[in-house]
Design brief:
Length: about 350
């Protein structure tokens, strides 16, 4: 018979291969004093290290054995003087997906402690769609603190419910605070609805927008993966502002269009040529070459096909250094190594043609 005072042992036993041991563990847990269990969880809570002593997928199962009794206890701890106790209570309410605690958890977005606030974002996103309206009410309240509205936007993004798109798009037309705009734009990317594309492109092309807002829009366009945005992203890829160029590169890598692939492979090779033609090699060109390589690596095997075609077309016109750059990119992307054997690379491409198409 399992000992009732060994909470950690009982939690482990819930996943035992022996069905009788699992049943005995659940019965023993039900007989424990919920107050003691709540205190044990809070005592053990160490933020992200929680999974070190309780596997994350078991927390909700264990906590819900008491059918809401623990939720009431954790709700009481939300007012504790110790922010670590508040943070733990918020975290576990989220793992329990305690819908009755939504109002209390949204209020924790206003907590004075940053870790408690972030735990509230996590908890509300775990509860999901049931928390959406409460979060939207906070987000759309222009009398609410900016920081709290930002946290609400982040939770909404994690919930990723399409019903939030219209309110966010409407808010973007009126809000002036750039930090909130960035969180709204990122939320649209996480929700992933193509309905948001036109607004994101408008921000993306706004000459008054900051590089941080533009890069956030690029990130979201990459998440939505709409091929109609490629031309805008390619333009941004050539931006002299690093954060904009890098964000556009990542977005293009995710969208993986034929147009983007060919353009990026061409850019990689032309940059390699310029780099090796200089007597004093440019650090800037090296950075651009590496950035282009990273992007085509994200595109993956379709980029390998374009590289092989370029290798065949350029083998008599390029320096050995440029050829070596092309071969290096091919090896990185494909995991193959046919050396300088162009026919070997062409044969491999023809064999894998279906895998290499976009």
């Amino acid at each position: 018979m399992l000992k009732q005072n060994n909470i950690e042992g009982l939690i482990t036993a819930l996943k035992d291969l022996d069905g009788q041991i699992r049943q005995d563990a659940e019965e023993a847990i039900r007989e424990l004093n919920p107050v003691h269990v709540a205190e044990w969880f809070l005592l053990k809570y160490h933020g992200e290290q929680t999974q070190d002593y309780i596997p994350v997928d078991e927390i909700g199962e264990v906590l819900n054995i008491w059918n809401g009794k623990l939720a009431a206890l954790f709700n009481q701890r939300l007012q504790h003087d110790d922010p670590t106790i508040r943070e733990g209570a918020v975290y576990f309410l989220g793992e329990m997906q305690a819908e009755k605690s939504i109002t209390a958890l949204t209020d924790m977005l206003r907590d004075e402690d940053n870790k408690v606030q972030n735990a509230a974002v996590h908890a509300l996103s775990k509860i999901g769609q049931s928390a959406l309206q409460s979060l939207l009410d906070i987000l759309l309240d222009d009398q609410e603190r900016l920081e709290v509205r930002q946290l609400s936007a982040r939770a909404i993004g994690e919930i990723a419910d399409a019903r939030a798109v219209d309110p966010i798009l409407s808010l973007l037309k009126t809000v002036d605070e750039e930090t909130l705009m960035i969180d709204l734009v990122v939320a649209l990317g996480k929700i992933g609805e193509k309905q948001a594309v036109d607004n994101l492109v408008a921000i993306f092309n706004d000459k008054e927008a900051s590089p941080f807002l533009i890069s956030s829009s690029a990130w979201s366009l990459g998440r939505i993966e709409d091929p109609t945005t490629v031309k805008h992203l390619l333009k941004a890829f050539h931006s002299p502002i690093d954060i904009v160029s890098m964000s556009a590169a990542r977005a293009l890598g995710k969208i993986r269009s034929k147009e983007a692939t060919e353009e990026l492979v061409h850019y990689y090779i032309s940059t390699s040529k310029r780099f090796h033609e200089l007597t004093s090699q440019s650090k800037k060109l090296q950075t651009l070459k590496v950035r282009a390589l990273r992007t085509i690596k994200v595109i993956g095997l379709p980029a390998a096909k374009a590289l092989v075609n370029s290798l065949e077309a350029n083998q008599n016109d390029c320096s050995q250094s440029v050829i070596e750059d092309i071969l290096f990119a091919l090896k990185e992307i494909s995991g193959q190594d046919f050396g300088n054997d162009v026919k070997g690379w062409l044969h491999w491409v023809n064999q894998r043609n279906d895998d290499l198409s976009i």
